[in-house]
Amino acid sequence: MSIPPPAFSDVAKASNDLINRDFYHTAAANLEVKSKAPNGVSFNVKGKSSHEGSTTGSVSTAFRKSPEFIVGQTKVCAHQIEGKYVNAPSGLTVTQAWTTTNVLNTKLELDNQIAKGMKAEVAADFVPSSKDIGAKLNLTFKQPNFHARAFFDLMKGPTANIDAVLGREGFLVGAEAGYDVQKAAITRYAAAVGYSVPQYSAAITASNNLSVFSAAYYHKVNSEVEAGAKATWDSKGSNNVGLEVAGKWRLDPTSFAKAKVNDRGIASLAYNVLLRSGVTVGAGISLDTQKLNESAHKVGTHFEFNG
Q1: Which DSSP string do the residues of 242-288 spell out, in sequence order?
Q2: What is the C-alpha to C-alpha distance for residues 11 and 22, in angstroms, rounded to an integer?
Q3: Contact by Cβ (8 Å): 162, 152
Q4: Contacts of 41 (CB under 8 A, 6+ apart)
Q5: Rounded distance between C-alpha atoms, residue 114 and residue 107, angstroms
Q6: Could you tell me the end-to-end alpha-carbon distance of the chain, in angstroms, rounded to an integer?
Q7: Which residue, of 35, 100, 213, 272, has the greatest Cβ tally within 10 A?
Q8: For the chain, what percentages of helix, strand and coil (3-state, to nearest 5) are there?
Q9: Where does residue 201 rank: exposed (0-12), middle (13-18), buried (19+ CB within 10 A)?
Q10: 121 with 108: CB under 8 angstroms?
Q11: Is-contact 302 24, C-beta < 8 A?
Q12: What is the largest CA-CA distance in the chain?
């Protein structure tokens, strides 16, 4: 491979995205509004209404004063004031935030400085009222045939989660492991093999300490049609194999439709259309084909505005 292979969690990304993304029945209504003023101030408003009746939302603004300095304010059930400093020549990014729950967050990112292809990130949280401190170290290393990540929680455990993927001529081999330093024990492990080219991909993953096995397949038939399937088997559970099959059809340059069905008889349909520049509407429905006369079905809508 001339480019780094995907991260371990993305070995089966193509099929997972086809099966899980852009199906709008999961929420009764979704709204997202994005706009940017001429002076550089951007706004992002999100709202979601669940089938259970609860409603969540967020409002965020950001002002870019220069390419090196960004100030933002975010509200996600609470307020947050955030400042970011970016020094492109040195690869250093510093982000500091203060929330209305009185939590101070600081994040340092260093890209391509320790070694070529390595990104280091240190994130610290401090709660003045309780003196609680949290610290995490994340490392990502990419090379043409290698992609590795390490996530360390320095205050809890400490614990480490490490994964790596080797890739060559489309073939992928990866593994993941979690380790608790205080217990001196491996807490979890997983493995995956796959093959990926632009037209199709296949992957077999063994997760949950090699007890849950899944096989995924994705095929881009042509520029208008995509197809995929995924089978899952839990060796510690029942002998049943979960199966999902999905397809996507590009109807025209501004719209597409998706459909999927699983082994339990749940069929889902979705439709997405770009009404005009900046306005996207989506609609979806989920039908329990074994309970057509019952109220087990779900309908959802999605509205997105970009200005």
Answers
A1: EEEEEEEEEEETTEEEEEEEETTSEEEEEEEEEEETTEEEEEEEEEE
A2: 20
A3: no
A4: 61, 62, 63
A5: 17
A6: 38
A7: 272
A8: 5, 65, 30
A9: buried
A10: yes
A11: yes
A12: 63
User: Residue 129 has which token pair?
Assistant: 């009222």
Token digits of residue 261: 């069905």
Structure tokens, 249: 């059809």
pTM of the shown model: 0.78
pLDDT at res. 61? 55
- Cα–Cα distance between 168 and 192 in angstroms, integer? 15
Strand partners for 87: 92
Contact 178, 191 (CB under 8 A): no
Note the pLDDT tens digit of each residue in 224-272: 999 999 999 999 887 889 999 999 999 999 999 999 999 999 999 999 9
- Closest C-alpha among 245, 246, 243, 242 to residue 257: 246
User: 270 and 257 in contact (C-beta within 8 Å)?
Assistant: yes
One-letter amino acid of 191: A
Of the candidates 6, 9, 12, the residue with the CA atom closest to the CA atom of residue 218: 12
pLDDT of residue 155: 86
Chain Cα centroid distance, residue 297: 26
**Residues β-bridged to residue 107:** 95, 123
Count of C-beta atoms within a 10 Å radius of residue 199:
10
Token code pair at residue 28? 């009764």
Closest CA to 227 of 201, 254, 253, 266: 201
Cβ neighbours of 230 (radius 10 Å): 24
Sign of CA dihedral 287, 293, 296, 300: positive
The beta strand positions in 24-114, using DSSP E, are: 29-36, 41-49, 55-66, 69-75, 79-87, 92-99, 104-111
Those residues whose C-beta lies under 8 Å from the C-beta of residue 277, and which sit 6 or more positions away, are none
What tens digit of pLDDT does each residue of 46-77 get?
A: 777 877 777 766 555 554 444 444 444 444 44
Answer whether 84's CB lies under 8 Å from 64's CB: no
